[in-house]
Every structure is written in structure tokens, then in C-alpha cells.
Specification:
The protein is rod-shaped, with a radius of gyration of 48 Å. It has a four-stranded antiparallel sheet, covered by helices on one side. Strands 5-4-7-8 form a four-stranded antiparallel sheet, with no helix packed on it. Among the domains are: 77 residues, no CATH class; 101 residues, Immunoglobulin-like (Sandwich), CATH 2.60.40. The chain is built from six helices and eight strands; from the N terminus they run ααααααββββββββ. By secondary structure, it is an alpha+beta fold.
Length: 263
């Protein structure tokens, strides 16, 4: 039995009972120990006294003479005898327990509210990151699809590959043209283009039986496969240097040429 009482006193049941934080079964168990074991009753009384001390720790007592002065003043003013009320200075334990429980509930509510705000903020961050990640995935998938389509065109058995190297005027120039006469598509891949003065630019031309057709501008900054117009009866492709802003002319300086009838 001594061990049972000792285990009870070492537990936190008395503290929880004091602040009303026990179930009905646990409360009945505590009341049984208090009623039947002096050690439990003494420990409970001590906890009540300690709680009362804590609750009153912040209170400020009035000077002893203050109440007497107030009573004398009232008697002189009204000539009426004031009946002094005698108060029991000991606060009921259940009032203290209720106050402590209210303080504990308020503190817990504030902590839960603050935690909920933090979790909500973290959740918003996670949602934004997921949204950005999905956008990146969609963008990457789009780029992969585009690259896959380009590779299919390049690997198509009907596609012909033409390497266009520069002449003495542009020795480092190199581009690759892919022409599919079945699907009627033409693409060009810029490998290297020598730097030109600010006012000049590279242009690609198609040579037909009776004329030259400008297919567009080549720019080294756009280092990827570029779609160019398909010319049905083109005899050759050539790259020329022209002046920006002027109308393209077939008399511009030619720096590279490849015949399309060799394959």
C-alpha cells in the first residue's frame, strides 16, 4: 500500500485535479486517495496553499491604516455608523483553480493561433513553390516536345543534310541546312558566324533557275535550328553579307554557297 500511495504522490494527478484537468474517473480516484490517506490529503492542502501564494504574488496590499481612515471619514461625513465587513482572506481553492485554468487556456489558445498562422504561411510558400515547379515542368516539357519534333525532322530518311562552309571572306563561317523534299520543309542550324560591323548582317539566299530568293537573316545569337522557307526548285543555297535597313540585293557579298543538286 505504501508503494501505491508513493506512486500516486509522484504522479501528476493532484496538480491536474487542482486545475480541473482530469476525467471523471481520474477525479474519483484522486478524491478516494485524499479522503482515505492523510499523506494525499496533506499533499493536496500544500498544493492549494502554493497555488494561492502564486495567485496572490502580484497583488499589492493597502497600508493597514488606510481602511480605518476611510471608515472615519465616512462616519464624519454621514454621521452614520459604518458596519465593517470582515472578509476571509483565504481565497477558495476552486476560484484559484478556475483562474489558473483560464490563464492556461488563454496561453494555449494563443500558442495554437500563432502556430496556425505560421503553418498557413508555410503552406502558402509550399503552394507557390509547387506552382512554380509545375510551370517549370510544363515549360521543360514544351521544350522537350519541340526538340523531339526537330530531331524527328533531322532523322527523317527523306531529310538531306548540307554543310555550308565560308569562303576566303568568312573562313570561320559554318552552318548546316536540312531539306526534306517530301514534307516540303527547310531548316538551318547556325554553327559559327564571324562577327560583322554593326551596320551589316548575314542573309541566306536560294538560287532558282531564273532568280535569287532571300530566305531570311542569320544571327549567331540564335544558336538553334531555324525554320526557313522551302523552295521547290532551288538549285543552291548561299549566304551573303548585306547592309541592315537596305532592301536585300542579290548583288550583296557572297561568303558561302552549297549546291542542292549534288545529292
Amino acid at each position: 500500500m505504501e508503494k501505491q500511495i508513493q506512486n500516486f504522490l509522484n504522479s501528476d494527478l493532484l496538480n491536474k485535479y487542482l486545475v480541473g484537468d482530469l476525467s471523471l474517473e481520474e477525479s474519483i480516484e484522486v478524491e478516494h486517495f485524499i479522503s482515505n490517506y492523510p499523506e494525499a490529503a496533506e499533499a493536496y492542502e500544500k498544493l492549494q496553499d502554493n497555488l494561492e501564494i502564486v495567485a496572490k504574488a502580484g497583488a499589492v496590499d493597502l497600508p493597514n491604516h488606510m481602511l480605518g481612515n476611510i471608515m472615519d471619514s465616512l462616519e464624519e461625513a454621514n454621521d452614520t455608523k459604518v458596519i465593517q465587513l470582515v472578509q476571509d482572506r483565504k481565497t477558495p481553492w476552486y476560484s484559484i483553480a478556475a483562474s489558473a485554468a483560464a490563464v492556461l487556456f488563454a496561453a494555449t489558445s494563443f500558442m495554437l493561433y500563432q502556430k496556425n498562422i505560421d503553418l498557413s504561411s508555410e503552406n502558402n510558400v509550399v503552394v507557390d513553390e509547387i506552382f512554380d515547379l509545375r510551370s517549370d515542368i510544363e515549360s521543360n516539357n514544351s521544350k522537350l516536345d519541340e526538340l523531339s519534333r526537330e530531331l524527328l525532322k533531322l532523322n527523317n530518311p527523306d531529310s538531306r543534310k548540307y554543310v555550308i562552309n565560308g569562303n576566303a571572306r568568312a573562313k570561320n563561317l559554318k552552318t548546316v541546312a536540312y531539306i526534306n523534299s517530301v514534307e516540303k520543309t527547310s531548316m538551318i542550324d547556325v554553327i559559327t558566324l564571324p562577327q560583322l560591323p554593326e551596320e551589316q548582317q548575314y542573309q541566306i539566299w536560294a538560287e532558282l533557275q531564273d532568280r535569287m530568293v532571300n530566305l531570311g537573316i542569320l544571327d549567331e545569337s540564335d544558336r538553334k535550328l531555324k525554320q526557313i522557307p522551302y523552295m521547290e526548285d532551288a538549285l543552291a543555297l548561299s549566304i551573303k553579307i548585306g547592309t541592315k535597313g537596305d532592301n536585300a540585293s542579290e548583288n550583296d557579298t557572297e561568303v558561302a554557297e552549297i549546291s542542292l543538286k549534288e545529292k
